[in-house]
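Recall the central idea of this unit: under ordinary conditions, the amino acid sequence of a chain determines the structure it adopts. In this exercise we apply that idea directly, starting from the sequence alone.
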Amino acid sequence: MGDSSTIIVGTAGKAYMGEVGSTFPTGPEEPWGADFTDLGFVTPDGLEEALEEERTQLDAWGEDAPVIDLAKKRTQTFKLVFRQTTAPLLSLYYQVSLANMVSTPAVTTGTPKKQFLSFGSGSLADTVEIALGLDVIMSGKRHRIMIARCGVSDREAIKHSADDSSNYGLTFTALAAPGGLQSVQHQITDVPLPAVTP
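Accordingly, the structure predicted from this sequence is:
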């Protein structure tokens, strides 16, 4: 039977980043801890989540269908477009760790000069991996996604123009989690689990 209360429309959302190994909240309505940074405004396109599997099928003599069908690899990706220009987003887009960025303070005496951030973006040796937290919000419902370890696997071109903000389109790919844990965890409110008959 149809039940419109089970429909989720992502009217709002948030993204948070932390160090790999950071402790995630224990529930979808718990606040994010101090070890996570809010990544700011996301464009109205919201979150695009994709799950791709590679499978191995084994045939047998005389059988007209595979006798074994096994998942060989599961790739989970999460795409968002961010509006703000911040050090964490620049770090993710240009694949430069925050430790390799330099902030020059503003000059307030004599001829004033603004603070500026400087970094190089040509090194393949610098790898940025993070813990990523995502909240999809609709009328009090929440779908929280927690990725223990991920990296940016695709980047959209940045367009600097008077027609829109300079946006950072990033696709994150979930990587194997530390300690053999599940790489991606989901928490979704108001979804009852049917009774399972043994």
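The beta strands are 12-18, 36-38, 48-58, 68-82, 102-104, 116-118, 130-138, 141-155, 168-174, 184-188.
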